[in-house]
Amino acid sequence: MLYLTIELMKVPQYQKGMDKIPEYYIGKIHKYEARKVVEDFQSDNYNLGTAITYLLRAGKKEDNPMVQDIRKAINHLHFELDRLHDGSV
User: Fold this and answer.
1) What is the pTM of this model?
2) Distant-in-sequence, close-in-space partners of 29: CB < 8 Å, separation ≥ 6
3) Domain ranges of the chain
């Protein structure tokens, strides 16, 4: 069953609306797409999921420095902390 789950997380060559998934979206060893990993662990929390996705892809996009992605991830963590603090959970 675990093998099936992992196989389903692997990235298809093409997705609806895209000719090809950008290389920086895909892991180097197991070829998992960052958003699929996040969906598996944090499908119910947008801010945490987005922060994790930014960290997994940090520095992979051309002309996009790693520090920029780390800052975006930190912003989403702050958004989540604010949401939790305000009690809007």
Assistant:
1) 0.66
2) none
3) 2-86
